[in-house]
Design goal:
381 residues; alpha/beta; five-stranded parallel sheet; 36% helix; globular
Length: 381
């Protein structure tokens, strides 16, 4: 198939989960024999059109005016031009509240469209968009979002509850994944551990994050401070603005890094943490729709994970099988589970082996692209 993949607000390559997702999907579908034309945001120093994988992946970098993400829908003329030029068999759009240029272009040209939903299409309780919509009486924002769902032949989402009820029968549940060739236990390095400052006998705990409030950096730091006197624990924080020795606990802050450096860093640690504080993101009242890239990558690197036990997260990394569960937003609970893992290397090894096996079998980007391929082929048939 020839697929036009519209993710106009994403910069690829880039450090965010969204940019990594788009990159892996484009390459993964190409590896399955499809021709993928990905529409992404124009960036300084990048060509407007670049190809890779022998032309199986072509990056189309576009811009619109005004340049803010809120005006992404104004990219419609450029996407229409690409549809006319490329004549794709199917179009896939990465959903954004103020997007829709891909689905609308597909509808205008009679191309079947797949809406890739990674964030809620429905309003959560207390939503400012919902309040604004209500104030406008005719609810234009909701009508626009629901219109995109109606124009789409099919949808994919990590959780059914984030799409409108009328669209759920056309929605396939999919999860994100990990690059299991890049993230692997074989990348573990004693030399890198020394460079990071990990004491020889310590359990290294890694936290990779974009440091959004609900990701739980505050929970991790509070737990680490509780454990500051323990010489058998060392914390490695990746992302955020801080760099240098950790303050108030044993560890190091690495700041923002190129994603290509993460496989070796993650594999050189012993435990991965995802200490979510879901009360800090109201959208999660709809359910834990976030497909956690860092958790998949911890698993692929063969690490035991400590995270919250919220469906469907607890089916991805199962408590007692690949992870230990902590209470949501609770530093004391996180500290308790880290002490347990630091004192039981056999448990760490068992959880890590199971995690690696499970992510390779069910949650790699290759498996994700198999799911997308089935939906795309069925939709275009």
């Amino acid at each position: 198939m020839k697929v036009l993949y519209v993710a106009s607000d994403q910069a690829v390559p880039g450090p965010t989960g969204g940019s990594i997702h788009v990159l892996e999907v484009a390459r993964g579908l190409a590896a399955r024999g499809h021709e993928v034309h990905a529409v992404v945001r124009a960036e300084p120093g990048r060509e407007a059109r670049e190809s890779e994988a022998g032309g199986r992946v072509v990056w189309h970098r576009i811009r619109w005016r005004p340049s803010q993400r809120f005006f992404r829908f104004r990219a419609l003329p450029q996407v229409l031009a690409l549809v006319d030029e490329l004549r794709p068999d199917a179009l896939m759009e990465r959903y954004y509240n103020f997007g829709g240029e891909g689905v609308r272009a597909a509808a205008a040209r009679g191309v079947p469209a797949l809406l890739e939903v990674n964030a809620p299409v429905v309003d959560h309780p207390g939503s400012w968009k919902g309040a604004l919509d209500a104030a406008l009486l005719v609810r234009p924002l909701r009508r626009y979002r629901e219109g995109l769902c109606r124009l789409s032949r099919a949808l994919v989402a990590p959780l059914l509850e984030i799409v409108p009820e009328f669209a759920r029968e056309r929605t396939t549940v999919v999860t994100w994944g990990a690059n299991v060739e890049a993230f692997t236990p074989a990348r573990r390095s004693a030399e890198l551990r020394r460079e990071l400052g990990v004491p020889e006998s310590a359990t290294a705990v890694v936290f990779v994050s974009s440091f959004r409030p609900w990701h739980g950096a505050h929970v991790l730091r509070a737990a680490a401070q509780r454990l500051a006197g323990r010489e058998d624990l060392f914390f490695v924080l990746v992302g955020g603005d801080l760099r240098g020795p950790a303050q108030g606990f044993r560890g190091v802050e690495l700041g923002r890094l190129d994603h290509a450096r993460l496989p070796a860093i993650v594999a050189s640690c012993d435990v991965g943490v995802a200490p979510y504080d879901t009360a800090r993101l109201r959208q999660l009242q709809l359910g834990f729709f976030w497909s956690p890239l860092k958790v998949f990558e911890y698993m692929a690197a063969g690490l035991a994970t400590v995270t919250i036990a919220r469906p469907p997260l607890d089916d991805i990394v199962r408590p007692g099988q690949e992870s230990l569960a902590m209470r949501d937003g609770d530093p004391a609970s996180l500290a308790e589970q880290l002490l347990r893992l630091a004192g039981d290397p056999d448990l760490r090894a068992r959880l890590g082996r199971s995690a690696r096996e499970r992510v390779v079998e069910r949650f790699s980007w290759a498996r994700h692209c198999e799911q997308l391929e089935r939906v795309l082929l069925g939709m275009a048939a």
